[in-house]
Write a structure and sequence with these properties.
The protein contains 7 helices and 6 strands; from the N terminus they run H-H-H-E-H-H-E-E-H-E-E-E-H. The chain is an alpha+beta fold. The strands form 2 sheets. The chain has a 4-stranded antiparallel beta sheet with strand order 2-3-1-6, with helices on both faces.
Amino acid sequence: MQVELQKLERRDWWLWGMAIIVMLLLTFAVFAMSFPGLIKIEDPFFQASVNRAVRGLAGLVLIFNAYTVYQQITVKGLRRDFSRKIAEMRILQARAEEFERLAQIDPLTGLANRRAAEERLAFEAGRSERYGHPLTVVSFDLDKFKGINDTYGHLAGDLILREFAQRLASTIRKSDIAARMGGDEFLVLLPECDTSHVQILLDRLRPIEADYSGTKIPICFSAGWVGYEKGETTEQFLERADRILYAEKRLGKTHAREGVTIPQGVP
């Protein structure tokens, strides 16, 4: 498209250049034909030749003007076509950007989806590998989420997911990324943040509850977090965080059976 526009611009300049040249030639011709009148040449043959030359010159002017008008109409038509194509390309680009955004957003919660989280994790892991910056991931899993669905219905479950996602998004920094990995599992990436600051994040998240048709439903969660270790793959990184998360959930269930309360989120 840029090449075609450059060709059109050169063509426009060529038309203007030709118009200037023709105007100069016409001026010279008019001056040349007026010169015999100044010296009073009375030769009839010469006068007839001058008249023919004037008529021929007028014909050339008409032909050139018609050609110039035609070319200008053609150029304007091409510009309209290019403008329409550019507008269509902008619409297509906007749609492509919207599709790309939707492809990386979880539709229920508005958080990043698994694909976006894994892409960002790979980028941040590479940056941590190069510059030695700390990188922490926190895996979340909502407790007793199936029981909420069974008791109150899936609409209540969706509300729980949205409420937790909203609190999570409002708690993290702008440089962090919160994602829904699927079901009731969430992930937070904390670039340039070590594991010692995770507890501050968890304290800000608690307590959470959702109001479903006048019923207050508490939102409880388990969390496991790890720091990136140089040389490990992103799959190994996430697997370590998941192992700690599931170990915590098992530990919480064991203590619950024994009647002991433990703080959540302690790996």
